[in-house]
Protein 1
Amino acid sequence: MKPILQLQGVSKKFRINHESEPYLSLRERLSRGFSMKKNQLEDYWALQDVTFDVQPGDSVGIVGKNGAGKSTLLKILSKITPPTSGTIVCRGRIASLLEVGTGFHPELTGRENIFLNGSILGMRKIEIQSRFDEIVDFAETERFLDVPLKHYSSGMQLRLAFAVAAFLEPEILVIDEVLAVGDAEFQKKCLGKMEEVSRRGRTVLFVSHSMTTVQSLCTKCVYLEKGRSSGVLTVHEGVRKYLAGSHNLHTGHQQFDEPGAPSRAARLTEAKILNVQGKSTSELLTCEDFFVQLTWENLDGVRITPSIELVNYDGVKLFWSGDTQVDWDGSGKTERGPYISTVKIPANFLKAGEYSFVLGLYTQSPYQYHHLILSALHCSVVDPMDDRCLARGQMSTQFEKFMLLPALEWSNIKV
Amino acid sequence: MEEKSEYYIEIKPRNTFSLNLKELIEYKELFYFFTWRDIKVKYKQTVLGFLWAILQPILLMAIFTVFIGRSFAIPTGDIKYPVFVFSGLILWLVFSSGLANAGNSMVSNAQMIKKIYFPRLIIPVSAILVAVFDFLMAFLVFIPILIFYKQPVDVPQALIWWPLGLLLTVIATFGPGCWLAALNVKYRDFRYVIPFLVQVLLFVTPVIYPLSILKNKWLEFLVALNPMYAAITIFRIPLSPTVPDPLLVTISIFSSLLLLLVGLGYFRRTEMYFADLS
């Protein structure tokens, strides 16, 4: 079978004009005598030699950090902007959803906007008419159909916008993170709709920052970094690359040297994350235990308690844990000298995601922190999506609403 | 699925210049939807609604008749001055508002251009079609005005020349409109140029005076370069037995077609980069 989409060495160059706005005023043009000084322009390659094939029916996640060129790639695929070089061959109609509600007009009613938006997205009037009831049903906005859009809540506008887009029927659908909006209930509905679309054999290209969504929706993955593509990978490889790439700056291992630091009663010298094999890493699996190991020094001979806090990607502090046992090895950690403290985070407890740790050394009484390091350690926990996930079991739902996903002990008695 | 897999497009750095009519026809409904949107939005929340399309030429006619027609005694031949002005004005308003709408259309729809693909030409064309809609409204008043001023009209001739006059107006608006739309994306100066241009052009177009008052052959040739000259002159043919100078009309039509070519060409050449510029 021929690939439905073939990208051959696609590159896109932008000219960055450091002096002024991207558009020119005629005065500037005239005063420069139609020859721009070259040194004011800088070439920026948003995409370089991107080559990959997409087979019919694939749903491909395009992942990469901000500025990796994802949006540019989508824009080229949607014909919004031409590539600087390279060719793309498509063997099907492409519809793109780079934003929901493109072309919505606040003065027009919901009904009118459905027609306008549908038509901008490339639907025929007859198509829209025949699916009109379904669209309205999906958007849950029947009562407001003849009210101008400006009186809609933003949530309602969004629902309406997505509903129109959801009923597009092209062979290739290109989507940019439109799901990242709306309330949880509606997000679920959208995800369901998208799964349905890809299951019906449509080819979907999906750009997202949410690895869980990519994992649940996509069968293939393309990882972009600084405008270069990895080629088509499995979802697992792609997600791993993304997570590895996003932690270039910080690792699962940190050393803290602070010459000339203020005098403290205790200080942290090293911290690392260890996986179940005892290897220092920042990539972990939800189904395996892992350890945080702190190396620290007691300088004053007071009683010291090491502690950690776990913070998720949204900055929510999930929990705090300190070594509150008073008489650890009888010394109470009161002797001067170096210590190594290790804390175990149990398997099947965290859900897949990215986390950072706050590390601390404190004295319980009088309560005082001697050393506190915010977001020193970073790790990503990946769901292997197989039967090792005790907490999730057979369920493929992503539990977006919850912070933790612990496998707790259940007991059942038939009565 | 079989026949759909025939579908094949290639996205390449720069397509060779072509109007790509096939694609425009594929998107024909969008012309309708954009025009319909602009008309709806234009008259929504206005008390008088579509009456505005009629009021504007009527008020202008009254002003020109009182202040210019009466004070200067302009020789308009067999056509009564108010009729002369009104017939010129309704076409002129298509040109002037079409030019203004089209010129700003790409910039005001920039958000959409950046997010979705459709043939960009639809935007300025729809903007001009809105002005044509206003013309049709105003035309409904044109007939009563003809009757009120007891203006003799050669009806069979009118059936030929009036539609042709409108067509020439649309063509005359189309070229400069697309050109300005594209230029405005690149050079925002044109936002200020357009209103000024429209104002100046009114005085070099025979809307409120006939070309004959110039009394200078060369000046007449110069004014005939104005694409609107032919449109308005042809539109007035059924109102008067005097035959207009065919040379001047031909010059004007050629100028109009030339502008159409240049405007469309420039638009097509730059449209691929609109999303990068706007």
Protein 2
Amino acid sequence: MKIGAIAGITFKEAQRDRILYLLFGFAAVGIIASRVLAVLTVGDRIKIIKDVGLASIALFGVLMAILIGTGLVYKEIDKKTIYTLLAKPLHRAEFILGKYLGLALTLLVMTAAMTVIFLAIVYAHTLKIESGLLVAVAYVFVELLLITAVAILFSSFSTPILSSLFALAFYLIGHLSWGLEAIIKKMGPGAGRTAVRGLYAVLPDLENFNFRTEVVHNLPIPPAIYLSSLLYGVCYTAFILGLAVLIFQRRDFV
Amino acid sequence: MADAVRIRNLRKTFRLGFIPRSREILRGIDVSVDEGQIFGYLGPNGAGKTTTIKCLLDLIHPDAGTIEILGRPASSPRSRAALGFLPENPYFYDYLTAREFLAFTADLFGLGREAKTERIARLLKLVGLERAADLPLRKYSRGMLQRAGLAQALINDPRLVVLDEPLGGMDPLGRKEIRDIIVRFKDEGRTVFFTSHILQDIEMICDRVAIIVGGRIVKEGGLRDLVSEKVLFTEVTVAGLPPQAFAGLGESVSAQGDRVLLKVYDESRVDEVVGLVHDRKGRLLSLSPRTETLEDIFVDTVTRA
């Protein structure tokens, strides 16, 4: 109930953020522009539409999560609205979870809206709805849930600008860390390899949620991969949210 | 009578600045507030009043000491189930209307739909915001925000109400209304813990006060015990006579036109002043004995500390 109330007010607040609509506008333009790009392409046009469309949903979704998420908790502290909230019988963990769920709901609505535009464009070309595309979007959303948790983690102790930089760095590292796997394979056994392996284990691997190439090119994906990716996303998100709660619980609101 | 608030040896040090320096804000605060009392917490700016309140609400974690609210440790969110809080300069979600904001705070206490609707209507009436209930809070004046803040502090029908500067920014009429509401709390059996810079208001409504200076309680007691009935001096306003006429009888504080304001410290000389005015055909405009006020005690205590 309390978490629901906080989530509701967060959803309401996020809806009022102009940046949300600006990013949604850009995403819509990106998805629609994929059709123009397809016209200019030699070869399989529908692949370009799917590729650019899915990339637009992923990119603008992440920007929404970071730019809105990093301000959420900070704004409450900066505007001192948090004094009134935490003076109620509300656990600080409930506050963080409510904020998280509110933004997750906002992103769900936005992702759904972007997906509708995307599927409409694809349908106009193929005259069918492909379930694979929905799976790819679903995993984009799982990634957004993790990025939202990261944004809220940084927002609980840092300013929005710094938090945005940290969250963006997390996103970039997460999409490049798979390179470490290649390095590990090429390294001989020893302390160096153990260190790189340890680093790879700690760093996020957001490529786990990227099924876009496989879906666009109709490549087969074993169901176990779907499950392990989902589990990875849930565990990593829970870990980050736990960390955010831990930090937030220790804070003094001076 | 049970303690509504019990603070023992509360200490808090902050590390402030780019190169952090320790600053001890609270240096062992001991305060007890009986249930049903109106307790005034006074002190100059930076004395530690708001820090104490924030510790009470667990917004700040103390370095040492214990705080109990209605018998529960303040660190537990359950201790705030029967507590209402109005912060200094309240900030709320300004895009919500007062009614929406109160509904949101009611949800934080898990009130049912009927209880919520009834209580919101009652509180809007109590604080005089019925007509502005459906306006967004950003259109509210400071005084109206203060009223909305008071309403949200009462949404759970609290046994303990903590008010941080509740009378700041209010016009005289609004101050009186809020004062009356606070007095009504006492009649309803609620405990009120509040800070204010407006000492006259505290003097009017408090049962007990504590004065904090530099993070320490330097004076605490029942208002009647602290403020004596002793006459400090008598203020006499006279017209038609020059200030020199009262040499040796009292101190001439000001002279405007043919009016002279005198302070007569020796009570036995007041009759002499009245007699002199009568004999020399002057006019006695006013005569008022000035007893000790909370302000006198406050200024004296803070200066000594």
